[in-house]
Amino acid sequence: MAITTVKSGALEYLTADSIAVPHCFTTRLGGVSRGHLASLNLGAHRGDDPENVAANFRILANAVGFDPNKLVLTRQIHSDIVRQVQHTDSNGFDNHDYPDCDALITNDPGTALAVFSADCTPILLHDPVTGAVGAVHAGWRGTAARLAEKTVFAITEAFGCKSADICAAIGPNIAQCCFQTDADVPAAMKESFGAEAERHIRSIDGKYYVNLKTLNALLLQYAGVVNIDISADCTACNPDRYWSHRVRGRVRGSQGAIILCQEASRGNEAFQFF
């Protein structure tokens, strides 16, 4: 199993071999946004022209194969809130009124789920048996709150999935090499994970380096997920390819992690919506 880069013209995004429905982890390449937001910015609240953001979503939808009019977004607050949705919860690309949450789940065919990141850990989930999917935004607070694990539990409870059937993909985030923190972050991990957290934290000259990729993989494993693809890419190491809050602060765009719910019997088909 692996994470693969897909190129469609100037557009570049990542997919996971383990997930059999249309999905993507975006880069910052292949959109129409300009200036410091060039070019594939999906963040409606980054100061971009709303028409550019909408155009970026349409470019992505055509390439990946989801209906942008059935795309449900998140208003992320670094919480452990998981929200169950359907396509009628879609409310536009620039709407501020989405309920607070950091994970979405659905079993409604045709509904696509999106979470956003610019260093935090994006995670996509798919159960090929029931067709249910999930999307998770896990910053360090969400990781300490065990959001990935809670999302798996939410899917199994809501849709009757077996956790061993669920396939997961962890997308590009700020890797341990660049995620330097003070003592509060490792303290939160130790409180959540116990002694196991030590294996995922390095201490150098009074600073700490935390591995959010492996901690979130561990949470998925705790929940019973077996098939997990993990991107090795670090957003902070590659600021020309990915948006990174650590590198650019608030003067940056947002990546998206998007997954489409399909009926379990359907394969990975291509669609053209525009």
Computed structural class:
alpha+beta
The averaged pLDDT comes out at: 94
Order of helices and strands: EEEHEEEEEEHHEEHEEHEHE
Oligomer: single chain
How big is the Rg? 17 Å
Query: What is the topology, as strand order, of the major beta sheet?
Result: 1-2-3-15-7-4
CATH topology: CNF1/YfiH-like putative cysteine hydrolases
CATH superfamily: CNF1/YfiH-like putative cysteine hydrolases
User: What's the helical proportion of residues?
Assistant: 10-25%
**Cα end-to-end separation:** 32 Å
Count of alpha/pi helices: 6
How many domains in all? 1
β-strand amount? 15-25%
Shape: globular
CATH-level-2 architecture: 4-Layer Sandwich
Number of strands: 15
Mind telling me the CATH class?
A: Alpha Beta
Largest sheet: 6 strands, mixed
As residue ranges, the low-confidence spans are: 266-274
Write up this protein.
- The chain is of the alpha+beta class.
- It has a single domain (3-260), classed as CNF1/YfiH-like putative cysteine hydrolases, CATH 3.60.140.10.
- Helix content is 21%, strand content 24%.
- It is built from six helices and 15 strands.
- The strands form three sheets. A six-stranded mixed β-sheet has the order 1-2-3-15-7-4, covered by helices on one side. A six-stranded mixed β-sheet has the order 5-6-9-8-10-14.
- β8 and β9 (133-138) form a beta hairpin.
- α3 runs parallel beside α5.
- The longest helix has 15 residues, at 50-64.
- It is globular and about 45 Å long.
